[in-house]
């Protein structure tokens, strides 16, 4: 018992700053005691005073005086441990313990020891009970006296581990508010909350952190993969662009050769005609010159006859000389100066035929390339007008001729026989095909997702529709404002629709003829959806059918 009592007495007589027996001990208002020199040096140069143990702050420096009882106990303890070496401490050691030297000593980088006087050493551990960081020397003294205190890696913000309201250690974690609390917080504002120990919350959060870390790493891998994919796409795009440049050069070279050939042929024809005209003119001139010779001869004979005084000769020659020689009627003879009327136009028409053939080949190549952007499109029954009947697969649409008692929701078209596709496109390239068969009244294309659903609707680009239409079995038109009539060489029975959102392009193709029908160029700012309009119910077997895309066979490039 005596040894236990002695050990308790020794612990009570140690200053927590210098970790030595008190020298002129003083007590501050919070109840903790320190050496007068230690606490004075600790507070020196600070705008407010704080307890090194409990961190209680005094905004006005408290009056302190020596605790005589504690001083007497400390002196007795010091005397019982006195030794010849202790009494002969060198002046340099006493100087190191002075408050002035403690404040003026140089600081080291990292977390400094809170106890060192003079030159501060790096702390090895921080005590969560004392809220103090200790170097190797002071840590040995601390561990010898406080074996149950919790030590952690040294940190400089120990004050952040204290509850600002209750000045207690933040030992618990409130799951309701996701914040650290002290034991007094649990009894007050966090009374009804679910709290656990900080260690348990740490273990749970650490497991969650590992999961989040794995997710982040997966996200990083996905993005690295996407970056590589984009780079590969750029390389493929560069190669594709180079091929397009080469193909276009070949196409235009072919066209230029064709034009040059046609021009040479036209020049040859014109020159041949000119040579024929010149030969014909030479023949006319030759015949005229022959007749002029005859006429000049006759004219000389008439002059001679007019001058003769021989009456008998005059009378005998008059009948033969006054008869006009046989000549041609030259009143209608002549040369047309415009010998090549219509030749240029006929040549251009032939070029137009060649250009059309070339355009058809290019359209076939274009269709084959865009078919790789095929997407699955299905009809949205929530938007279909009650006159329209949809198949269970959502791939067929027909006008049933019977009004169905469907719920009139905000998405449904109540007046115009329209249905939209379920899919919405706000980026990228998309292609799908629709079989129209022999239907005589339909629209196909894309529409804004926000188009008007109720009442009369005008299908036009101004109202948010980009569509190709067959009207009444008589004409095709594009839904421009105003509508643009189209002259199509064939009646398409299967129409391909291509959307390039970023380019603002909506194109239509005759899949069977593998030809281009029409293209809209615009700009889009909201989601677009496939659009279907089917009016007449002339043949129940003729449905608008969304068909699978079968790639067009490759063709020989021009």
Keywords:
558 residues, 6-stranded antiparallel beta sheet, elongated, 11 helices, 38% helix, 17% strand, disordered N terminus, 23 strands, single chain, 7-stranded antiparallel beta sheet, alpha+beta
Number of helices: 11
Shape: elongated
Unreliable spans are: 1-8, 83-108
What's the main sheet like? 7 strands, antiparallel
- Could you give the order of strands across the largest sheet? 11-12-23-14-19-20-21
Strand content: 15-25%
> What structural category do the secondary elements indicate?
alpha+beta
Mean pLDDT: 82
Radius of gyration: 54 Å
What share of the residues lie within helices?
A: 25-40%
In total, the number of strands is 23
- End-to-end separation in angstroms reads 110 Å
Could you explain the architecture of this structure?
- This protein is α+β, with helices and mostly antiparallel strands.
- Helices cover 38% and strands 17% of the residues.
- The protein has helices at 2-12, 36-43, 68-80, 84-87, 91-96, 99-104, 136-145, 183-187, 198-307, 311-321, 343-370; strands at residues 25-27, 33-35, 49-50, 57-58, 125-127, 132-134, 151-152, 172-174, 179-181, 195-197, 388-390, 396-399, 418-420, 429-435, 442-448, 465-471, 475-478, 484-486, 494-500, 505-510, 515-521, 528-534, 544-547.
- The strands form six sheets. The chain has a seven-stranded antiparallel sheet with strand order 11-12-23-14-19-20-21, covered by helices on one side. A six-stranded antiparallel sheet has the order 13-22-15-16-17-18, with no helix packed on it. It has a three-stranded antiparallel sheet with strand order 6-5-7.
- A hairpin with a 5-residue loop joins strand 17 (475-478) and strand 18 (484-486).
- The radius of gyration is 54 Å and the shape is elongated.
- Residues 1-8 and 83-108 have low confidence and may be disordered.
């Amino acid at each position: 018992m005596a040894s236990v009592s002695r050990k308790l007495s020794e612990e009570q007589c140690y200053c927590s700053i210098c970790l030595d027996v008190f020298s002129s001990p003083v007590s501050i208002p919070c109840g903790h005691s320190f050496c007068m020199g230690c606490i004075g040096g600790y507070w020196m140069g600070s705008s407010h005073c704080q307890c090194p143990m409990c961190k209680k702050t005094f905004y006005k420096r408290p009056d302190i005086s020596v605790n005589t009882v504690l001083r007497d106990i400390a002196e007795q303890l010091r005397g019982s441990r006195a030794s010849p070496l202790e009494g002969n401490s060198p002046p340099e050691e006493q100087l190191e313990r002075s408050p002035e030297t403690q404040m003026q000593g140089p600081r080291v980088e990292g977390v400094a020891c809170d106890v060192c006087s003079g030159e501060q050493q790096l702390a090895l551990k921080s005590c969560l009970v004392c809220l103090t960081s200790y170097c190797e020397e002071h840590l040995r003294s601390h561990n010898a006296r406080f074996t149950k205190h919790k030590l952690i890696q040294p940190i400089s913000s120990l004050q952040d581990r204290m509850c600002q309201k209750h000045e207690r250690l933040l030992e618990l974690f409130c799951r309701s508010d996701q914040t650290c609390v002290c034991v007094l917080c649990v009894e007050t504002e966090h009374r009804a909350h679910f709290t656990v120990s900080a260690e348990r919350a740490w273990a749970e959060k650490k497991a969650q952190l590992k999961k989040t870390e794995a997710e982040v790493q997966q996200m990083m891998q996905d993005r690295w993969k996407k970056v590589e994919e984009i780079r590969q796409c750029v390389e493929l795009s560069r190669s594709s662009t180079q091929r397009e440049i080469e193909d276009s050069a070949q196409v235009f070279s072919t066209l230029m050769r064709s034009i040059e050939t046609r021009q040479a042929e036209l020049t040859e024809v014109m020159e041949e005609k000119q040579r024929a005209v010149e030969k014909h003119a030479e023949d006319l001139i030759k015949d005229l010159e022959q007749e002029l010779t005859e006429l000049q001869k006759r004219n000389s004979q008439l002059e001679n006859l007019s001058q003769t005084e021989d009456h008998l000769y005059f009378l005998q020659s008059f009948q033969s000389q006054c008869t006009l020689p046989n000549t041609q009627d030259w009143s209608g003879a002549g040369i047309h100066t415009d010998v090549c009327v219509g030749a240029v136009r006929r040549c251009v028409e032939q070029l137009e035929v060649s250009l059309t053939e070339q355009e058809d080949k290019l359209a076939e190549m274009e269709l084959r390339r865009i078919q790789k952007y095929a997407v699955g499109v299905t009809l949205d029954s929530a938007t279909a007008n009650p006159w329209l009947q949809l198949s269970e697969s959502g791939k067929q649409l027909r006008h049933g001729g019977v009004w169905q008692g469907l719920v009139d929701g905000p998405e449904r078209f109540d007046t115009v026989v329209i249905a939209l596709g379920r899919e919405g496109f706000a980026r990228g390239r998309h292609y799908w095909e629709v079989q129209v068969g022999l239907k005589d009244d339909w629209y196909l294309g894309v529409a804004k997702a926000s188009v008007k659903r109720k009442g009369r609707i005008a299908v036009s680009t101004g109202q948010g529709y980009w569509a190709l239409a067959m009207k009444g079995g008589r004409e095709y038109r594009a839904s421009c404002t105003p509508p643009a009539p189209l002259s199509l060489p064939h009646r398409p029975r299967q129409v391909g629709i291509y959307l390039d959102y970023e380019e603002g392009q909506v194109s239509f193709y005759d899949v069977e003829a593998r030809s281009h029908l029409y293209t809209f160029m615009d700009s889009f700012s909201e989601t677009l959806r496939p659009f279907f309009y089917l009016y007449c119910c002339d043949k129940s077997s003729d449905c608008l059918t969304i068909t699978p895309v079968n790639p067009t066979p490759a063709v020989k490039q021009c």
